[in-house]
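User: I'll paste a sequence; please echo it back and then give the predicted structure.

Assistant: Echoing your sequence first, then the prediction.
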Amino acid sequence: MRIESITKIFDCKEDNAVSTASNLLLNEEVIAVPTDTIYGLACSANCPEAIKKLYSIKGRDAAKPVAICVSNISDVRKWGKAEHLQDDLLHSLLPGPVTLVLEKTKYLDNPYLNPQTRKIGIRIPKHEFMNQLTQMLDKPVALTSANFSNEPSSLRIEEFEKLYSRLGAVFNGGVLSNGLEVNRSGSTVIDLSQSGVFKIIRPGISYEKIVEILKKNGLSKI
């Protein structure tokens, strides 16, 4: 661990990194974390004060939605309405660089989380640190890219240094997405809220592969 500005920076491989991150989220902090795509800003999704802090740090319009990270397919079904989606389809997409947009369930009841829509993006990143964190926390983790709004996404922690002083901690997972500029697009975002169809909200990493999986499972593009 080293100190830069007033923010603590942890190596994700440190023995206590996951428990430290979990405790910070439980205490309404916003932290920076690695994912399988880009670095993100994370907080506890059902905590109103944490979500307000997240939007303030990001400089983000409160009308723009953020996604949540969860641990497994049963969590996807708990926080998003996915009765119309087969387990085989969900397991073929997750974990991985895809965000599934579904209707919120009653359990996702933070009035500050995506207040202008009934939908929520849900991710299970294919990343050991994030998977361990969501399992330990046992709550949904709100996640948005670690940058100011409308600025490039970050593949290295040095790229969002100007945010450090406003974060509870930064968790360093090294260079992400092999450092490839093309991969700054982040996850592919797909609306699966309607039965039998899908809508592309944002093409991202593995876009063609994800669309192929959806079509093979009988879904039509709208």
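The domain at 2-176+184-221 is CATH 3.90.870.10 (DHBP synthase). The chain has one domain: 2-176+184-221.
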